[in-house]
Amino acid sequence: MTDLSDFAITRKWPPKDAGVIQLYSFPTPNGVKASIALEELGLSYEAHKVTLSDADVKSDAFLSLNPNNKIPAIIDPDGPGGKPIGLFESGAILIYLGEKTGRLIGADATDKAHVIQWLMWQMGGLGPMFGQLGYFYKFAGSEIDDPRPRARYIGEARRLLGVLDGHMQGRNWVAGDFSIADIAIAPWLRSLDFYGAREVVGWADHANLVAYLDRFLDRPAVQTGLAIPPRD
């Protein structure tokens, strides 16, 4: 029987089946990357809801696995050499799962380089900039009278959408076949609806992205992964 007791997080979120991947997450654009990848890859896993409240993400239990107090995080009981491994950072988790299975990460070294290139584009650009857009357009930052923060992130969101829209001309997926790059990018495009920011960034003007996001959301594994773990 697999023993995960060395991971302190399991004392707050005990596994029902310690022999499968343990997912600690919440359905945010970053959180669903892990659940969608697990669904697409057909890997057995158990999802634990870690809310964004300090009681969860800043608890000693969660910090023992991710000292950066952000979801998602995983424990794979069957890690390298058959030993359990804990991981945080959504991009790192996607790469790990892709390499573990040999899927969704490119057919050869060139394909893999392109997949990781676009994954890093999301991690370093699209995600952080859209997150700031949400803060200054919808959440607490929207109350700031100074218009410059909103203008900055609206402008940067428009720029990034233009980059991706141009790249997607004549393509179905970001880096050849469907990959972890798509799993990283598309949920952040979807976040514009949640932020109520589609109009302000000119979403409808990016026909390639509108079609791309529709293709992504049509995938059964995506539809399942977007709701894991359930919010309620």
From TrEMBL:
<dbReference type="Pfam" id="PF02798">
    <property type="entry name" value="GST_N"/>
</dbReference>
<dbReference type="InterPro" id="IPR004045">
    <property type="entry name" value="Glutathione_S-Trfase_N"/>
</dbReference>
<dbReference type="InterPro" id="IPR040079">
    <property type="entry name" value="Glutathione_S-Trfase"/>
</dbReference>
<dbReference type="Pfam" id="PF13410">
    <property type="entry name" value="GST_C_2"/>
</dbReference>
<dbReference type="InterPro" id="IPR036282">
    <property type="entry name" value="Glutathione-S-Trfase_C_sf"/>
</dbReference>
<dbReference type="InterPro" id="IPR036249">
    <property type="entry name" value="Thioredoxin-like_sf"/>
</dbReference>
<dbReference type="InterPro" id="IPR010987">
    <property type="entry name" value="Glutathione-S-Trfase_C-like"/>
</dbReference>
<protein>
    <submittedName>
        <fullName>Glutathione S-transferase N-terminal domain-containing protein</fullName>
    </submittedName>
</protein>
<feature type="domain" description="GST N-terminal">
    <location>
        <begin position="18"/>
        <end position="105"/>
    </location>
</feature>
<feature type="domain" description="GST C-terminal">
    <location>
        <begin position="108"/>
        <end position="232"/>
    </location>
</feature>
